[in-house]
Structure formats: C-alpha cells, structure tokens
Amino acid sequence: MEWHLTDAQSLTLIDGEIGETSLSPAQYEIVRRVIYQTADFEYLNLIRFSESALSSGAAAIAARSTIVVDVPMVQVGIVPNLQSTFANAVYCSTQTITRPQKTKTQTAWGMQTLARRYAEGIFVIGQSQTALTGLVELIEDEEIKPALVIGTPAGFIGADVAKERLLDAQIPFITVDGRKGSAVVAVAIVDALVDLAWQVYGEVGTGLNYSSSQK
Description:
This protein is α/β, with parallel strands linked by helices. It has eight helices and six strands. It has helices at 5-18, 25-38, 53-62, 72-83, 106-117, 129-140, 159-168, 183-201; strands at residues 47-49, 67-69, 90-92, 122-125, 148-151, 173-176. It has a six-stranded mixed sheet, with helices on both faces. The chain starts with a helix and ends in a 14-residue tail after the last helix.
C-alpha cells in the first residue's frame, strides 16, 4: 500500500513505544499495522497466530486464491491493495444470494454458502460473530479446509467463544483473544499480509510476474 511521511512517523513512534518483542518480523509487521489503525497497544498481546498462518496465507494470496469476507466494510477496505498487487477475487457473505434460513443470520448463511464454494480459500471475518461460528462449524465437520482464516469480531456474547473454537481448529488462523476486535483490525491484518506476500512473491518472486498494467 502507499505510505506517506506521517504514516512512517507514526510507525516509528509505535516501534519506539513497543521496544523489544518476541514476535517474528512478519508477525510484528501485522501487529504494528493493527496498532497503527486502532491506536490500541493492547493488540500487541492479543493477536494470535497459528504456526503456519503467515506462510500459508501469503502463499494463498500470491496464488490468487479467492478471499471471502463477512461485511462490505472489510471488502472495501482490502480491495484497493489487492488491485495493485495480486488482484484476488473478493466476495462478501452479506451480498450472497441464499435461501431464507430461520436458524441462521444472512451473514452466517452467506458465509457458509461461499465457504462450500471456495473451500480452500481465505476467509476474513471482521465483524460478524455468527459468520465466524458458521465457518468454524464447517471446519470442525471437515467440509472445508481454508488456506487461512482471519477472525477478529468484537462482542460480549459468543464472539470470544467463536474465536476460542478457531484456536482449536486444525487450520491456519490469525485471531484476537477475548472480546476485542473489529472490521478495522481485519482490514489492517489483510493489508499487512498482502504487502508481506508482495515482497516475497511479487515482480521478482518465484514465477509470478506482472506487467505494470496489471499491478
């Protein structure tokens, strides 16, 4: 993504306030982006990564895997950076046509519908606890095997439980402990991961060459 002087100055201030950390460089880059977007340093200790989350997610982005999101705010937030890099298709669960369901929200049912269609895609749930719960149900039932799940919904009822279930799922994930989270956090994570993937797999990467008109 495009950076300006004030962005660099803010990130420098974040680095100075955090100091030493046990995070890997790639993990730290994602965490500092979240802190930059939220001005909340608690995320330094709240963001959780599975062992293969970054490698699997970056590879899937570079392979132009489909990305499924829960709400339009996430879709609008991540599309510009994707358009200038890997141009992955992005679908939103709330905009998916589904048959009515009495036991599920539109977002949850749309998420499950798209998940079955793109079973090995990347899933980003920034706001809807029900969408994350519905996705985890499919993972637990072994109906889908995502390349990466980013789950950051906030909430007092159910959101923390859904995120805890994600921790036990045998798939790559990035999530936030406890009640905190938001669509803004999800967008910051995706944008950082796209930039990291572009550094590795971009124009000078392994077999992925794009002309300037495609970037």
